[in-house]
C-alpha cells in the first residue's frame, strides 16, 4: 500500500523518534528537552568530559511535556493543549527503576548526563565501589572508574548475558586485568550505607551504583494499553495490539513473539523508520538486525560486525562511526 495522508505525531526525540522524523518530514516531533543525549558519551563525563559532550541540540516541532494520551479521542495533551493525531508513534525511551531493592535509598542510579556529573563528584575520595548489574552499562561503567576497588555483582551466570559468549569472555578478562572483582550468580538482597548484602556475603561499599533495571517510559494514558515491562506490546508491524493507529519504536516497544531484541542504536533507528513507514500506510514487518555491537571497557573496544568478531582499533573506529552517524542524523532534523 502507498503513503496515506494524515497527521502523524512522534512522541520522543531520541534515535528512534529522530529516525522516524527523517523518514517523514511532515510528521510532528515532540519532546520535553531541546537536547538529545548520546548514550555512549555519558561514560566520558565520568572521565572528565563536559556534560555538553553528550548532549546535541535538536529541532522539535513541539517542545513540551506530554501530560496524557487519549487513544479514543486520538489526542495528546502537550503542555495542557490537546493536539489531534491520526496515527501516533511512541518512542519515549526508558527509565531506570531500582526501588524494588531493599535499601534503595543508598543506591545511585546511572542513566543520563546529570547522573554522570553527580557520580563523578561522589567518586572523589571513595575507596570501594559496588556496581549492581553486569550488562552493557555495568561493564562499561566499571571500566571507566579508576583508582578504586570496584566490584560487579551480577545475578546471572555471566556478564553481558544475551550476547555471544565471546563478549562475556573478553569482558571478564579485560575487567579482571583492570582489577575489577566480578561476582556471578550473586543477586543483591539489601543495600546498606556502607555494605551490599548478598547470599554469598557482605561487600564493603562507599558508593553503590545501579547499572540495570531499564523499563519503558510510556506517558500517562487515558485508556489502558497492553504493555510488558512498561513497553507497548506491538505486532511485527510495530503496531499496538490494542490500538491499530498506535505504533511504538525503540525502548518503547515490546514485539509480541519477537524473542529477545537487544536495545541498541541500530535497533532504535531501524524500528523508528519501520514504525513510520507502517504509520504512513506501508505494511512491512520489522525484522531486527543488530548487525554491529561494540563494547568499550576502559580504552579497549571489542564486539561484532555481522558474524565477525572485531577488537582494538577496528572496533574503536566502528564505534566512533556509529556515534558520528547518530550526531549527523540529529543535526539533519
Q: How many distinct helices?
A: 7
Instruction: Please give the domain count.
Output: 2
User: Mind describing the biggest β-sheet?
Assistant: 5 strands, parallel
State the name of the first-level CATH class of the largest domain. Alpha Beta
Helix content: 25-40%
Biggest sheet strand line-up: 5-2-1-9-22
What is the CATH architecture annotation of the largest domain? Answer: 3-Layer(bba) Sandwich
Residue windows where pLDDT falls under 50 for at least 5 positions:
1-5
**Class of secondary structure makeup:** alpha/beta
Which fold name fills CATH's third level, the topology of the largest domain?
Answer: FAD/NAD(P)-binding domain
Strand tally, please?
A: 26
Shape: globular
Distance between the terminal alpha carbons, to the nearest Å?
A: 26 Å
Strand portion:
25-35%
Q: Nearest-angstrom radius of gyration?
A: 20 Å
What average pLDDT do the residues reach? 93
CATH superfamily of the largest domain: FAD/NAD(P)-binding domain
Describe this structure in words.
With about 325 residues, the chain is an alpha/beta fold. The chain folds into 2 domains: about 10-95 and about 215-290 and about 320-330, 3-Layer(bba) Sandwich (FAD/NAD(P)-binding domain); about 100-210, FAD/NAD(P)-binding domain. Helix content is about 25%, strand content about 30%. It contains 7 helices and 26 strands. The chain has helices at about 15-25, 40-45, 115-120, 135-145, 165-175, 265-280, 315-330, and strands spanning about 10, 30, 35, 55, 60-65, 65-70, 75-80, 80-85, 85-90, 95, 105-110, 130, 150-155, 180-185, 190, 195-200, 200-205, 205-210, 215, 225-230, 230-235, 245-250, 255, 290-295, 300-305, 310. Strands 5-2-1-9-22 form a 5-stranded parallel β-sheet, covered by helices on one side. Strand 15 (about 190) and strand 16 (about 195-200) form a beta hairpin. Helix 2 (about 40-45) packs parallel to helix 3. Mean pLDDT is about 95; it is low at about 1-5.
